[in-house]
Each structure stands twice: as C-alpha cells, then as structure tokens.
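note to self: dont lose this again. the chain is below, predicted strucutre after it. 433 aa total, dont forget to put it in the shared folder this time
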Amino acid sequence: MAANSTAIAILLISFLVMVFLRFPIAYSVAISSILCLAYQGLPLSTLVQQMVKGISSFSLMAVPFFITMGVLMGSGGISEKLLDLADACVGWMRGGLAMVNILASYFFGGISGSASADTASLGSLEIPMMVDRGYDTDFSTAVTISSSVEGMLVPPSHNMVIYATTAGGISVGSLFIAGYLPGAVLAGSLMVISYIISKKRNYPKGDPFSIKRLGKDLVKSIWALSALLIVVIGVVAGVFTATESAAIAVFYSLIISIYVYKGVTWKGVWKVLDTCIDTLSIVLILISTSSVFGYCLTTLHVPELAAKAITGVSSNPYVIALLINLILLVLGMIMDMAPIILISTPILLPIATSIGIDPVQYGIILVLNCGIGLLTPPVGSVLFIGSAIAKEPMEKVVKAMLPFYVFMIIALLLITFIPEISLCLPWAFGYGK
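---
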C-alpha cells in the first residue's frame, strides 16, 4: 500500500507541477506516466502498448471526420447565412445583436462542434458588427465567447465521441440527441442576462420581425442545416454508425462549400485539410498519452480512492453532485477540454453513476463544465481567442464575463439536478428506458 501511495504521489504531483509550469499537456501526461511506470518497475513497452490501445478504436475514426466537416463548413461561407437566419429570428428584440450572436452560435455549433472554431469564425464577424451598432466591446466579446460553449453540446460534437469512447458502452447517438435541450437551456440563460444588460445600457433593437424574411433566410441556410440531419438522424435512426455518418457529412460539406456557397475552392481545400491535420494531431496525441495515464490510475486504484474520499465528505447525492461539478470547474481552469474528459472520466463517472446520474447526463455535465473552463483564466483558450479578436485586455473581458459566469452556472445546476433536460430526448428515441 505504501508503494502504491508513493506511485500515486509521483504520478499526480509530477503532472500538476508540469501543468503549472506550462508544459504542453500531452508532455505533462506522458512524462508523469513514465515516471510512475519506472517507479513501479514496469517496462516502458507498457507505455507504447497503452498509447496504441488508446487510439485503436473504431469510434475514434469519427473524430477526424467531424473536425474536417466543421472546418469545411466554417470556411465555406456558412457563417453569414446562419447570422442572417438568427437575425431574422431574434434580431427584433432589445439587444437584438446579442440575441443573434447567441442563436447563431447554437446553429453554427451544430456544424463546427468546437467553441474555438465558433469564436474564431463567428466572432470575427459578430464583435465588429456589434461594436459598430453601439454595443460595448467587452460586452460583445463576453456574449460571443460564452455563447460559443453551446457548440460543444449541440451535435455533432467530437468531444462527445471522445467521452463515449473513454466511458465505454455509451451510445454516441444518445449523446448527440441529449445535447439539444441542454444547449437550448444554456442559450436561454445567456439570452436572459444579455437582455437584462441590454435593457440597463439601452442597447438598440433590430429590424421588426418579418415572416417573409425568416422564410427567405431559412431557405438560404437549409443546405448547411441539412448536414446536421445527415449526422444526427442517420445515427439515431440506425441507418449508419457515427463514423459512417461523419464520413458522408464530410463529402456533403465539401460539395456544399465549393459548389453551393462557393466559400472554398478546390485549391483552398488543401489549406482546410492542413488545418484539420494540425487539430487532429493534437487530439490524437492527447488521447494516446492520456490512455497511459488512465492505465496508471486504474492499476493504482485511484478511482476507488477518489470515490471513497468524495463520499467520505458527505453521503448526500446533491452534495456529491456539487463536488463533482466543482472538481470539473477547477480542472477546466488549468487544463484543456480533451485531457479533462480522458483523465477525469474513469475517476468521476463511477461516482456519478453511484448517486443516480445517468452516464449520458454525466457526459452533458462534463462537457458543459469543460466549456465553462475554456472561458476562465489562466488557461481558457476561447477567452484568449475572444480577447485577441476584439483587441481587448483579457482582464477587461473577464470582468464583463462575471454575470455570464453566474448564468452559465445556473444552467449547469439545472442540467445537473433535472435529469429530464438531458434525457427526455434519448428516452423518446428508446435509449435508457
């Protein structure tokens, strides 16, 4: 037991030290795992075996396809179409452009599946547009980056695929359809705080609502929105697997981006693929090294020890659920999303299920916590992207984000303690009941 305790200390302390020293997270995970294995006298061939095992998954083949689909659609002129559609829906309200921003993120998130992609592509259009119409720059940035988190909940999200693979035995289709209502709850909470601030600062309204304009913009956007039908309905109906649907969606996105929206040329496709390879290489090295880290955690019985520690604080399931959220929020402040999913799932998922949280619901809770983490210093990548696009100091953006943090936490608590928000759609399609 003493040897196990020392090995655990070596694994976790070395990892945390490297994280705080700003080592790349993949290196932190790999080096701490090597030190742990070396202390236990295990051969380093174990490292290679576990790395290969971590990425030898058929489900993970969907990840590069979803990434490619998101980059293609994001580069293919779809952003403007979705902004027009969102403006037709909610632009007439007080603070209309803030509402448009939030709704456009809901639409675009279903295509990109990435908060960073959402902020980079939509933010470069939305933030200057809002500032030109009289909105404060820090408020415009706060709305843009907070609404980008919707994209990780609305399918297809490659982070959901990573979670399903890590958790094992969870249907990707059920996770996909489970994300719609939580994404809408998050969007609604952001709209409420945006309206309150807009009313207080007397931000302008947009053009009056018009059914004719809504229909026109819906027709223009239908090609982009159809990509979601291919992925979600195809998977849920059992027509094809998540991987097959992702591959078909890539081909569809390629045709739409080049021949319909004409935002990308065949020559530009190579640049898109280059971006995809950069992103995919980061994701795969994280998955492979985190697999070794997870192996060390499992063999050292860390999940069981963590479960005893958390349940030792309280036996009340509500308190335990709050502790799980708190742990994930703190992790989100110092780590990126993929490693949190890969490292925390083997530890926290058994604890969550022991208090009655469904694995599908836990996946939504996990992703939302990680999404909030992307907006928090010191490691919030989306916070940095938003600050860079707006050319605003990060400290000023964080100050503007404070009310949005509060309403995002409210949405998180609703999703945590009202399981029907996450599970009613999967139940309707026959999952889990």
